[in-house]
Design brief:
heterodimer, A: 58 residues, alpha+beta, two-stranded antiparallel sheet, 1 helix, B: 423 residues, alpha/beta, Aldehyde Dehydrogenase, Chain A, domain 1, Aldehyde Dehydrogenase, Chain A, domain 2, 2 domains, six-stranded mixed sheet, 14 helices, globular
C-alpha cells in the first residue's frame, strides 16, 4: 500500500493532527494509498516555505 | 530543464502511479510524463527572456523603464484527469517567471505531485520552491485564502473555478482559470469523413471523455448525418474497454465512483428529456473488474438544445449528436452555450474554415484535427471556460507584474500642485 505525506520545504510532513485520507484505484475499486490531510497549519507551513524560498532566490 | 530529463527517465513509474489513481490509459499517462520535458525546456528557455522596456517619452530628461517582476508565491490547484501534465503546464511558466509555488493536487490523484516535487529537488531546484499539500476542498480554500499567496492558478470544473475566483476576489488576488467545456465538433458534408469520424471519436472517447476539451456535442450536416452516425456507433461499440495498464485497451474506467454515477444520471436525465441512446448508456460487465468504475462509450441523439445534457459538462464518455442544415444554423448552435473552451471543424472549404474560426466563441479552434495541444501555442477558455492563457509566452506573463520606474535626470523643479502629465 502506498503512503504519502505533504512535501514542504523538501521534507515529508504529516498533518499536525495526524489525519489522512484514502485514494482508490478506479479499475478495481480497491484502496490505492493514503495521504496526509493538510489543514490550514500545513498550508501555512508550505506557503511560508515557498515565501522563504522566494526571498532567498537568485 | 534537468527536471524535465529526470521526469522523462521516471515516466514509466509516474505513469503507473497516475493510472493506478485515475484509471486513464498507461500509454497516455506515460506520453504525458515524457512530454513534460518539452514544456520544461520551453519555459526554462523563456526564464532569461523576460525583459522590461525603456519607454520613449517626449521629455528627454526623464528616464522611464519597466521591470517585469514575479508575484511571489503562486497557489496551484490541479485536477485528476492529467495530473502530471497539467501540474507541469501550470508550474513551468510560474517558475519561469521567478515565482515559488504551493501545489494542491486533486485528492483523487495526489501522489504524482509529490513525486514531481521530489524529482525537482533531485534535479537541483532548491527546496521550498515547489511544495505540495494534499487534501480536499478545505485544503485548497486555505491555500487560496493565505495572505502570502499572490496568484492562484486553477484547472478544474466551472463550479469550483467560480468558488475559487470568488474567494480570491475577496483578497483581490488574480486567478488563472482553466475550466470545463461543452465543446462542439462540427462535421460538414464535404469533410474527409474518415478523418472526421476518427476525430469525433478521439474528441469524446479518448481518456473516457475526461478531458476539459472533450468534443461532447457533435454537429453533423444533414446529408451525411445517418451515414456518419451509423459509423460512429459501430466504432464506439468496438472500443476495447478494460484494464488501462494494457496496451490493447482503448478506454479505461472513469476516475471515481461519483463520476460514474454522474455519467449514468446525466444520460438517464437526457432520456427523460427526450433523447434516445444509440449505443452504451450502461456499465459494461467486466468479469475481471467487478468493482471498477467502468462506463460504456455512449452516443445519444435527439437531445434538445436546451436539455440538461446539452447545457452541462459530463466529463465522461457521452457524445450527443445533432443534425444541422447549414453554416449559420450550426454556428448558432455551437455558440449557444456558456462555455467556450474549444471547437472542431471538419471541412475542405477554406473560406468556411476561416469564417467559422473567427465566429466560433472558443479559445481553441481545431480544423480537420482535434485535441492537439503544445507548449508554445496559447490555450485557454472564452466565456465561462476560463480566464487567462496557458502555454506560449503569454503564460509567463500571467505570473508577472509590471512596475514602471520614473527617473528625473534634469534639474528642473516641479510645480508641486500640478501632476506631471504627458512627460
Amino acid at each position: 500500500m502506498n503512503s504519502y505525506q505533504n512535501h514542504i520545504g523538501g521534507q515529508d510532513v504529516a498533518a499536525a493532527d495526524g489525519r489522512t485520507f484514502t485514494g482508490f484505484n478506479p479499475t478495481t475499486g480497491e484502496v490505492w494509498g493514503t495521504f496526509a490531510l493538510a489543514a490550514a497549519a500545513e498550508v501555512d507551513r508550505a506557503v511560508k516555505a515557498a515565501s522563504d524560498a522566494f526571498g532567498t532566490g537568485p | 530543464m534537468k527536471w524535465g530529463d529526470i521526469i522523462a527517465q521516471h515516466a514509466d513509474r509516474i505513469a503507473a502511479i497516475e493510472t493506478g489513481q485515475n484509471g486513464k490509459l498507461f500509454a497516455e499517462m506515460r506520453a504525458q510524463a515524457r512530454i513534460a520535458q518539452d514544456w520544461l525546456y520551453y519555459f526554462g528557455g523563456l526564464a532569461d527572456k523576460v525583459e522590461g522596456t525603456v519607454v520613449p517619452l517626449d521629455r528627454q530628461s526623464i528616464f522611464n523603464y519597466t521591470l517585469r517582476e514575479p508575484m511571489g508565491v503562486v497557489g496551484v490547484i490541479t485536477p485528476w484527469n492529467s495530473p502530471t501534465f497539467i501540474a507541469i503546464m501550470s508550474l513551468a511558466p510560474a517558475l519561469a517567471a521567478g515565482n515559488t509555488v504551493v501545489l494542491k493536487p486533486s485528492e483523487i490523484t495526489s501522489a504524482s505531485a509529490i513525486e514531481l516535487a521530489r524529482l525537482a529537488e533531485a534535479a537541483g531546484i532548491p527546496t521550498g520552491v515547489i511544495n505540495v499539500v494534499t487534501g480536499f476542498r478545505e485544503t485548497g480554500e486555505a491555500l487560496v485564502d493565505h495572505p502570502l499567496v499572490a496568484k492562484v492558478s486553477f484547472t478544474g470544473s466551472v463550479a469550483a473555478g467560480r468558488a475559487i475566483a470568488a474567494r480570491a476576489g475577496q483578497r483581490l488576488v488574480s486567478c488563472l482559470l482553466e475550466l470545463g467545456g461543452k465543446s462542439p465538433n462540427i462535421v460538414f458534408a464535404d469533410a474527409n469523413l474518415e478523418q472526421a469520424e476518427a476525430g469525433v471519436l478521439a474528441g469524446i472517447f479518448a481518456a473516457a471523455g475526461q478531458t476539459c476539451v472533450a468534443g461532447s456535442r457533435a454537429y453533423i450536416q444533414r446529408s451525411i448525418y445517418d451515414r456518419l452516425v451509423d459509423r460512429l456507433v459501430a466504432r464506439a461499440q468496438q472500443i476495447t474497454v478494460g484494464d488501462p495498464m494494457r496496451a490493447e485497451t482503448q478506454m479505461g474506467p472513469v476516475a471515481t465512483k461519483m463520476q460514474l454515477e454522474k455519467d449514468e444520471s446525466m444520460v438517464q436525465r437526457a432520456v427523460t428529456e427526450g433523447a434516445a441512446v444509440l449505443c452504451g448508456g450502461a456499465r459494461p460487465a467486466l468479469a475481471e473488474f467487478p468493482g471498477g468504475y467502468f462506463y460504456e462509450p455512449t452516443i445519444v441523439h435527439h437531445a434538445g438544445k436546451d436539455s440538461f445534457l446539452m447545457r452541462n459538462e459530463v466529463f465522461g464518455p457521452v457524445l450527443a449528436v445533432t443534425a444541422f442544415e447549414d453554416e449559420s444554423e450550426v454556428l448558432a448552435l455551437a455558440n449557444d452555450t456558456e462555455f467556450g473552451l474549444a471547437a472542431g471543424i471538419w471541412t475542405r472549404d477554406v473560406r468556411r474554415v476561416h469564417k467559422m474560426a473567427r465566429a466560433l466563441e472558443a479559445g481553441t479552434v481545431w480544423v480537420n484535427t482535434y485535441r492537439a495541444l503544445t507548449f508554445n501555442s496559447p490555450f485557454g477558455g472564452y466565456k465561462a471556460s476560463g480566464i487567462g492563457r496557458q502555454n506560449g509566452i503569454e503564460a509567463v506573463y500571467q505570473y508577472l507584474q509590471t512596475k514602471s520606474v520614473w527617473c528625473e535626470l534634469g534639474d528642473e523643479v516641479q510645480d508641486p500642485f500640478v501632476m506631471k502629465l504627458g512627460a
